[in-house]
Amino acid sequence: MKNIKNRMLLKLCFLVSISILLFTSCSNDSENSSGKLEVTGISKSVVDDPLVDGDREVDVPTEIINAGNYYIIRGSGFATLKSISFNGLESYFNPTMVTDNTIVVLVDQKTPYYNEMDEMKIVTSKGTLNYTVAVRPPNPNIKGFPINPNPGDIITITGEYFLRPVVNFGTTTVEPIESSLTEIKVKVPEDIKYKYLSITNVSGTTVANQAFGSAIYDDAPTNIWGWEEKWDATNTFDLAYTKDFSQGSKCIEWKSGEWDAYIIALAFWNFTDTDKFKAVRFSVKGLKAGKAKLFINGEPNNNFKVVEFKSDSWTYIEVPFSDLGNPNVLSKIGWQEFGGFGGNTILLDDIGLVLK
């Protein structure tokens, strides 16, 4: 399970390469429609269960459309494609991925699927085709859950598309106590430390980014958090800011002066497993788009990396230990305001470590 992130990245790269291959193989097709408008088959670009190694398949014929995925539509009469929609909602297509016989399309994640007409509509300059195909929800979207729970805790997992969910803590399946399309309540089983949460619905499986027990801040300081240090005591902090967040329901709001810093020291009496991790992770957002210097062990001029963030959306960042001097001991994590324009209000969330 520790290689989930790498495999998901490889999957994305693989999908891009498949799209390029499709474009290359079809580039000699006529640009003008040479046949009637019809669909002869639909394939899913990539089928890959993130919990199973070596099961990836490419260009797999299907009779079901799962929103949020790439599909290859085959037939004829597509050369002058104007739009393609599923259950009434248009989906994005790249014109360079369309020939007279092939459409590569990313089905919009917001495509309606409940009590709908199960219809794909293809509109070209020469006509319109309504084609019946089952449309189902995307894979689950996990938005938040307690990352450092204790066995026996009743926790709530929030997200989307929890349709008939199967919940796993590592390889342990847990029956939901309650569930809706956006929330699942479960009892935490034994032996979950450094394992991953995964949820499977009728369309597929999603694995959470964070391993259990890896959070330093998760709506509040965790058992890994020891104490905090501030370069300027006039900076103000809200450790339970609820107006915005990237994971869970709260984040840290830091009103920083120019070049000021905020440091979290790790609690060594509770946390001695630094060697099991390979990177620092956090999400960041600013009142103004800016920069911050991440540094470790109280050494802002030696073990650091400058990162950029936005003001209109959260930026998820992982900084490998290899970028921070490969420390033998990790005792402190700090951020220095680095925008160069007089200070900023910075939001920090989902602070933790990434498993090897």
From TrEMBL:
The keyword Endoplasmic reticulum does not apply. Keywords: Signal. Residues 148-208 form the IPT/TIG domain. Coiled coil: none annotated. The keyword 4Fe-4S does not apply. It comes from the Bacteria. Residues 1-29 form the signal peptide. This is IPT/TIG domain-containing protein. It comes from Flavobacterium cheongpyeongense. The lineage of its organism: Bacteria, Pseudomonadati, Bacteroidota, Flavobacteriia, Flavobacteriales.
